[in-house]
Design a protein that fits this description.
The structure is a homodimer of 265-residue chains. Chain A is of the alpha/beta class and 265 residues long. Chain A has 2 domains: 160 residues, 3-Layer(aba) Sandwich (Rossmann fold); 99 residues, 6-phosphogluconate dehydrogenase C-terminal fold. Chain A contains 11 helices and 9 strands. Chain A has a 6-stranded parallel sheet with strand order 3-2-1-4-5-6, with helices on both faces. A 3-stranded mixed sheet of chain A has the order 7-8-9, covered by helices on one side. In chain A, helix 1 links the parallel strand 1 and strand 2. In chain A, helix 4 runs parallel beside helix 5 and helix 7 crosses helix 10. Chain A is elongated, with a radius of gyration of 20 Å. The interface between A and B is large, with 85 and 85 residues.
Chain lengths: 265, 265
């Protein structure tokens, strides 16, 4: 692999380029992005050159789609015509079923494998990119692919191979549900609550600082799973509410602490 | 003020003693606690001496009750008989109405002012005590009290004077609700979710690591406020759920981000 093209040089695309370099990649990295992002990425040495999609795609051995989901979908539609036969295409979109279905229809000359690095920040943009962003974090690939598996391992992420539907079902619980809880909590706390706010309320409303821009597409492409996760959560919370002063709460806390420990392993 | 007695030398009591020393207090600090906690507190130089309650109380100018709420309530009942007239008594219990009512009935020879430092960790015990635990955090006093106000300022906490009922209403939203959300989330995420767990699910289940021991008393002494906070939260979450793919979500995210920023000021 001699040439990688990052489409969408923001937090994730920029971090992938930096991680690739840090892992020893000596080839060429081109970027397809807004002129502001290209300028900043060039200034930080994250990419070697900014190019239009057709030119970048025609040169690349690997194309990494790191735009928001809706933009990934429209990029897939125009991408195939620009590819050299056999070019590997992957993405970093936060849901996988809709993207993988679209790629199956759109990508014929190249090979598409969906991806999702479980890393992020409340702040976006290439200015926030870090070589270490994916280290120790799960990196999901939607099917086996030796070239991509090697990269995921080289950038020190935790390789997970999982079908798109299973990915979308699980991230509804681990990522989309936490976001909605944080957003709902931030607007439930009365304004005067700030006078007594400690670390609990600050930690639990950190995700509420996130921009809606990427969430719109996540909600529209994973609505049924998110609704099911919300239903499950609300039922759990109502069950705790009904037993607030019941000795059974001790066992609930123990069970929750054990589950929280597992999420940290 | 020459002598301070810490009743319950754990994370909070130990941190208060360390913060007091760090702020320049030169007097004597005694501790009333389990023999294990006393041994550790002496070894770390957190207290000068461990004593039984009656002996410690008879010598102290300030008594700092840092046990769990239920233990604070029973300490209040036996404390008055041991006090020199005019001794100042305060506490660090997580709810204030029940404690302040009990103190009004129990403490006659001394003067009681309720307190609550908005600081904590998932881990408990004097081994976790830190001089800086309260720095920059709200420290609520339930009424004006020049001696305690001076200490709160000296240990670099943010002084907030607020009646017990208002405190309990607000912490139901800022502290008790976040705890229950985290506990409910940890047991809603399916076990296989650990394979794709990123920072969102880890941050949002951090509070679920907390021990039930202090929460039992919080739930029993603030049940009505917690129930109201839960009702408000569930209504907000159901409202987001119903509008998941509605453009109005953009405004919800903006409102939540602004509220989350206010909690950080």
């Amino acid at each position: 692999m001699n040439s990688v093209c990052i489409v969408g040089v923001g937090l994730i695309g920029g971090s992938f380029a930096l991680a690739l370099r840090a892992s020893g990649f000596k080839g060429r990295i081109t970027g397809v992005s807004s002129s502001g992002a290209i300028r900043e990425a060039l200034a930080r040495g994250i990419i070697d050159e900014g190019l239009p999609l057709a030119d970048a795609a025609a040169q690349a051995d690997l194309i990494y789609l790191a735009r928001p989901i809706d933009a990934i979908l429209s990029t897939l539609d125009e991408l195939d015509a620009c590819l050299r036969p056999g070019t590997l295409v992957t993405d970093a979109g936060s849901t996988k079923s809709v993207i993988c279905s679209r790629a199956a229809k759109s990508i014929h000359r190249g090979k598409f494998v969906g991806g999702h690095p479980m890393a992020g920040k409340e702040s976006r943009g290439v200015a926030e990119a870090e070589a270490s962003l994916f280290q120790g974090r799960p990196y999901i690939l939607t099917e086996a692919c030796p070239e991509l598996e090697a990269i995921v391992t080289q950038i020190r992420a935790k390789l997970v191979i999982m079908p798109p539907e299973e990915h979308d079902r699980l991230v509804a619980f681990t990522s989309h549900l936490p976001q909605l809880l944080s957003t709902a909590l931030a607007t439930t706390i009365p304004a005067e609550g700030a006078r007594v706010a400690g670390p609990a309320s600050q930690d639990m409303t950190r995700l509420a600082l996130s921009s809606y821009e990427i969430w719109r597409d996540i909600f529209s492409t994973n609505a049924a799973n998110i609704d099911a996760a919300l239903a499950g959560f609300i039922a759990r919370l109502e069950s705790l509410r009904a037993r607030l002063n019941d000795p059974a709460m001790a066992a609930e806390f123990d069970r929750a602490a054990a589950a929280a420990q597992v999420l940290r392993k």
